[in-house]
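Methods — Computational structure assignment.
A single polypeptide chain was analysed. Its primary sequence is given first, followed by the predicted tertiary structure written as structure tokens.
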Amino acid sequence: MGNSSAAQLYRCAECGWRATKWSGRCGGCQAWGTVEQAAVPATRTRLSARAADRLAPARAVPITKVDARAASARPTGLDELDRVLGGGLVPGAVVLLAGEPGVGKSTLLLEAGALASRTGPVLYVTGEESAAQVRLRADRIGAVGDNLYIAAETELSAVLAQVEAVQPELLIVDSVQTIVAPGVEGTPGGVTQIREVTSALMAVAKQQSLSTVLVGHVTKDGAIAGPRALEHLVDVVLHFEGDRHAQLRMVRALKNRFGATDEVGCFELGEAGLAGLADPSGLFISQHGDHVPGTCLTVTLEGRRPLIAEVQTLVAASAAPEVPPRRVTAGLDSARVAMVIAVLQRRADVKLGRADVFAATIGGVRLAEPAVDLAVALALASAAADLSVAGPVVAVGEVGLAGEVRRVPGVARRIAEAQRLGFRRAIVPAGWASERGGPEDTGGRAAAAARTLAGVREVTSVREAIAAALGG
């Protein structure tokens, strides 16, 4: 009867809701057409007797007697990765690292594994390459160590056997979509398989205090492939992103039970692998000597890290009156650029309606926050008038439809970063010094940042900002 009931089990592909009868609508998430038959055997993946003993439930103890030092983070050796993780990897934590193909996930984890192997054994399980291929990449980037163990496995039972044999302090699985749980229906990378594999690896990680990093694929929309429940199961979700044609790579924390989720790690991709960038602002600024019309500097916040970036624009006459004008953007939100163009034409008398407009950033960085609106507006006005911005000016502010310049969070931190890099002029929204948006925006900090710059011009409208930037 047990096997018969197991064969008649139905499961929702979205949330995992189970039932013994098929239903067109999930009783958990209320989604239609997601309930499918899933034959689950009565016996799950078999572990060895020694591993089963470790998975036995531990006796509950008072929280005052729990030693918190056992859960302290251990640095990986990559400062930028440790910044995002909140200091390092916590024993027993399960980390999911997702990113597009070819962005450098395997390279990053191979470097982190080689550095972590200096203090203890590290097991790198690859389901996509052979051990020889991983060794070739390790030789190329210099990620070789005697305590770094490589295993090419695709079955969950074999992975667990390797963990039992090596007894590592860090387990890296590349990738979780390639591991198959024996006796469980579904193709590799399917909803049922991913949930089963992740649950088994998490159980081992918690019981053995084994830090585990899982590599995950992403869909064409940029979301993490597999069931959404996968992100809820793991402790940390990291997203590795970057333009494949640029050197910059960024690691963002989307979820972190052991640290903040507003930290960003920056890396530079080269022939010898990934190198951490403690001060990446220089990648986003061009090195032209003279001031060129159509350029303006701004300070964007990537998490809690301020970065100096440059916005470049080009305004050219359309090919013919009957040809619609072109609007091309790279690294900027096309909808916000179009809105800024409309505001400039209607509120500041900048004629851009019949002109081709090109707007881009430097170094492959993507600027999507509203705080860069003012820099885009000043760059467009500069390009339309064929006048360069008077001196190196940093512009920060959001542009509204009425032509006003609105305040944005973290102005004091942005100005302090500009001052640190040698800039002395800034155009900011009026009233920024009295903002109480956070601990960094206190009046004392804002006043100190304002005194360090030779000129902080407060503006209330985009027309006033253009006059201040172009010397009008």
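Note: Residues 191-208 form the longest helix (18 residues).
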